[in-house]
Here is the input.
Amino acid sequence: MAASGRHVGHCIQRNGRFLLNNLEQLWGHRSFSWTPALHQQAAEANKESTENIVIPRKKTWSKEAVLEALAATVSRDPTAYNYQFQDDPYLSPRTSTEFKFFFLAQESGRSAAKFFVNSNPKFFTKDFAEPHIPCLMPETVSLRLEEMSEEALKERISLRKVTAAVDMYDQLLQAGTAVSMETTHDLLDLICLYCDREPVEDGDEETEDMQESGREVKRRRIGFRRASDVLKFSWKENNNAERIFNLLPERDTQCYSALIRGMVKHGACAKAFSMYTDMLNNKVTADVHIFNALILAAPDVREKYDERWELITELLTQMNQQKVKPNLLTFNSVLRALRRCGAMARAKSLQTLSEMKAVGIAPSLASYDHVLAVFYKPASSNLTSTDVLQEIISELAGSRFTCQDSDDVVFFASAMRICLDNKDMELGYKVHSLVEVGDNWRLLGDPYQQSVYYGRFFNLLCLMEDIDTVLKWYKWLIPSLYYPNSQGLKDLLQALDTDNRLDLLPQIWKDIRSLGHDNRLNIVEELLSLMAREKHSPEVQESFAACALDIKTVFDGDRGKSGLEQSNSSLTHITSLLLRANMTEKAWEMLQLFKSMNRVPTEELLNDFLSVCHSDGSPQRAVALVQLSAAFCLPATPKLAKRTLAEFDLTEEQRTILSELESAGESTD
Here is the structure.
């Protein structure tokens, strides 16, 4: 449209000049007609103008363009639960434990539905979806080709039937049928990937991964596997992969690559290096995947740090000699191996980063995470400088990332942990601002890793920021992004105490109940202790008393839950809060609970109660209070009796009772 408008304006300008030049010729004629000369001039002018027309290229929009445009106009609602729970708001989780159960149940339901659809494809032959969504259609999970052929072998490989594929391969060899090298490569890759075992079902694998997510992330970060993992996936001697490999008349790079990577993946690192030596002796050139696996396995075959680095350097030199170009995973393997090379790794890791940039390979988040792990050791009690992280965040500021390495999802949580340990709030904000760029939040990892990141960020806020800022982030993060654990809530209570905003405690208690943490005795007692520590204005004391009564229902047991075990301190705090709000009847009921639960009230609480009785003009309740103290055999009974005799207008009978209690207490002393 813009090009057409410019063309029209250009034509008008040129034709206008043409008319002005011929105005004298036209002036004075009542009527005129186009002469051949005039017509030729006009045609030439139009021809010149059409040569400058630029036709714009057609813009092709994706099918999701409209949805993406609409999504860009909507921001996240911090008061709503996560989008994945919108289908069933009644069952939306309130705590991290409920979130785990919900997510596992959701994945289990998907797996069950997928199994039923794939097992009964005849019931799902019609596709009403527009556009067509292939992943929602039944997959071929059963074998269709029963005859002995290479096509049947390919089918078993594509369906990940390890045992069936090996059996078919053996039958073909026995029948004298040659199997193509391409199919043999696929078979070796399948066997080595699953360590000559049948793969776990997708649903079971996802559920197991989610249950072990936190521990697996930790194991991956510090670079070791549990003994049970090694035993579960250990490489067996002379398994089918080695047997088929030894039967091959010719072995190329891909055959060696499959076995070497499988051996490294399943713990046979020394055997992988032996296989690599055999490959060199047979004058077979390695590929980049072989070198990546061997570099990663280098720390497992050398004990001393300098020997590990020498082996890595030797492998890199051989890569150069064999003219194998390194990729991102090559450098990430070097950096990951350096995490197990001691103090020398600091200089070598920075050198590796410089080498990456020199060859034109941009580091991924996993690269920087390995560097952070080299410079910062979580087990160390001494705080380290955050200069390295500062430089990394400054370099990455405003960048958008895509996942290029499985360890990319660990970076943000690691960076925030360093900020928390060093109490660097400014750096924490920089890390979080990088998370909010584009879709970088997707690289926070699975829901459990996201919870770790946001938990550390919130703990840092509670430690370093004023309460107004903390509450702003509190409303922004919870519950749409983060389900706080007990430590996060304790940090929040501490932040309220630090800024002297204890008047907000009743509001926080409502959130504690809604988030399902009212069954945590340490949090409940911490809250009661803060409310009962000092006196406040009457309005605040009334809200505290109402909160204390609600907490009492937690101890009594409500909402189908069993009550918490009520301690002596919690009973004392609730009674004291009720007294300060002039709820004498409720406070007296709490004192009776002391007796029924065989708990002993404090002398300070009894003195406070006696003061309230005096202000209310209740001598009868004051006498009952002294009698209650005597029933507990408290040493403060004579003092309470003496004070009651001095401050209250008593009857003769009441004075007699108190005098006896006073003398009995003194004689006991």
In short: The first helix runs from residue 2 to 21. Residues 1-34, 203-232 have pLDDT under 50 and may be disordered. The radius of gyration is 39 Å. The chain has 34 helices and no strands.
